[in-house]
Amino acid sequence: MTPDVSVEQPRPRARVRAPELTGDAWWNTGGEPLTLAGLRGKIVLLDFWTSGCVNCLHVLDELRPLEEEFADVLVTVGVHSPKFAHEGGRDSVAAAVARLGVEHPVVSDPDMRLWQQYAVKAWPTLVVVDPEGYMVHVAAGEGHGAALRRVIGDLVALHERNATLHRGPLALDRVPNTGQPNATGQEHTTDQGRPTGRGQAAGQDRTAGQPHATGRTARRLDGLWFPSKAVVTAEGRVLVADAANHSIAEFASDAETLLRRFGDGERGAVDGAFDIARFAEPSGLTLLPTHIAERVGYHLLVADTANHLLRAIDLRTGAVRTVAGTGRQWRDGDDSGAALDVDLTSPWDVRWWDAAGGVVVAMAGNHTLSLFDPVEGTISRFAGTTVEGLRDGAATEAFFAQTSGLAVDGDRLWLVDAETSALRYVERSGDTDDTGYTGDTGDTDKTSESGGFVVRTAVGQDLFTFGHRDGAADTALLQHPLGVTVLPDGSIGVADTYNGAVRRFDPSTGAVTTLARDLAEPSGFAVTDAGVLVVESAAHRLSPLDLGGDDEAGGQVVDGAALVVRRPPTVLAPGTVRLSVTFVPPPGDKLDDRYGPSTRLEVSASPPELLVDGGGVGTELDRVVTLSGGVESGVLQVVAQAASCSSDEAVEHPVCRITRQDWGVPVRIESGGAAGLPLVMAGTPAG
Question: In angstroms, what CA-CA distances link 448 with 319, 395, 440, 445, 534?
């Protein structure tokens, strides 16, 4: 074991009663809210999540096998505690439940009351409640599936011995395919008409076809179901990543006539002919240059997001094959090498970029950009460090936050970071941008190491500030944008997803305006010879973007207020503060120090001046940091990692795992604030 680390050892503790469940709306409960009192005898797993968090989406997939394995004793309840204002709305939660195929009960926690009562500090956080109503295990982040299996298995054995476990399915008369909140008696009436390709013109009803379905039966293979992004072929056909239909839809140039579908509509990872292939929530698409396509034998590259793969499609034959990824989600280790041997993590978008000599991959799952070479069959880290945040400079030192959209404009790669609500770009060092910026990063050595590429931010502030405000770029605000494109006039269009808007950024003036509003979660674009189509994901359609005449082409100016997440900041005292991360290895495991220290802790801050001392990387999970009294507020960025293996000495090759969590903790500095910041990566809640 690594000495002097804050690693909790299992020991008897005072039991902590789990706070009762409350919320303003429920889904998948057959018409009634659930209570922990009413669930006595069951093991309850609370999943604190929010719909725009990629790590939360990973956990949904991790929980599905557990829900199936322990179906007669386990009740999972999703507690939807929103980060962004849009995520707190009932329609938004309903859309997320439908899009992600969530079938367990979900409660909406818009004011984050349950979040605070359970002392949650990160999305996602999992809380296990035993059959007697006590909290017995807390785990922050993802990758806890194996540990949870052991925790739940131990609880089953214990409470069967004590006769406190009730087996059998939960008595819920579920309303199939409704997705409607049912705790308040308020119902939503919307058009349930069939979603199609191209939608209504701007100004018409944008709520038609809004999602109110949850299960797999909601998919409609004759149209679109939560599409993500689109591209246009040289012949004018429109290819759409039809995410919730787990397939790629090909439309004629009218963007209405469905010609062909790649994938049979079932979730999976199957290569082969177009009608038997399977995808899992595909998101990004890019067409390869003709000379590259001829060499590699395929034309379209797909970011197969939930499969953690890159898939290739030959548009002549319809054949689908995997060209990058193993199907395992990257947790730690190699991120570069032979493409089929490297784990990926939620690739969200892809774009061929001549300046980089390959396909840039928005690796949303670990907040980096990768570079895929289709000719050599290799993939490598291109930019980012895996720390979530907003930091410009040399590409390899920059911070990203769930990059979700890419667009190329010559020697500049534009991108949107969803979690920092930011529009950013990558270009070679030394290039002069349109506003006269020289591109000096202040660190020529690091820029050289990154291959000469630098990252800059056009719009965006930090992980917790967002809104809908136009004007000068340095004060403009977005809300969780997922798509970006180069508009016909050379300006940059942004799918400002959670504002339901299309925004325009003019690189020559630095001005931001609004081109369209009242859209249903726009997530991408397709620029055709006839104009620009917007992918309205939550309306299941493509809608034409009205760019207006010459006098209106700049759009309107919206002067909205700056918003911040509802998550309350942690109040800390200036000066020395003890930061401690609790990690308890899963039952039957021990820390693995065979190849060096078993734990790792990295601490940084935004703004950097907040952290006077104690930043950087170390091997202890307990550290004293010094916070500035001259900075009123900011974000402490904490990344913790622990390696553990089976403690059975008789096992020659034990199963080992890496547990990792990234916190962005908003803090406010006040005299009299706390002198400690405890964080739980995995362990038993304190009594």
Answer: 40, 10, 12, 5, 38
